[in-house]
Amino acid sequence: MHHTSIMQNQATDRFHLIFYKASPLPGHHPDIGETCRHTAQSYQADGCDTIDEAISLIEERDELWPTGVIEQWDGVESPANAAFFPYLTPRADVSWPILSTMARSSVTSA
Prior knowledge:
By secondary structure, the chain is mainly beta. Helices cover 8% and strands 41% of the residues. The chain has one helix at residues 51-59; strands at residues 2-9, 14-22, 35-43, 64-73, 82-86, 100-103. Strand 1 (2-9) and strand 2 form a beta hairpin. The longest helix has 9 residues, at 51-59. The model is unreliable at 98-110 (pLDDT under 50).
């Protein structure tokens, strides 16, 4: 099961799935609540023409866990990053296309 977000490549205007793996912070961190750090493991290199295509790819594959997050990517620097997602978010509770938009510069590097 992979938490999966979408990143929009601003250089090509294509939409890529980005796959995350749980990578908890060491130690006890009560300030982050019911979330867990996830690090980007890979992303879909070819991307999709539209946001709807990207959403459909996620929704039709049971092993992908949608985060509802669409990230902006400049298309130049490496898209590797880390993000905090809830441990469990029922698939039915995720709204697309945007729950949150994160600028690449504000995302902690992996």
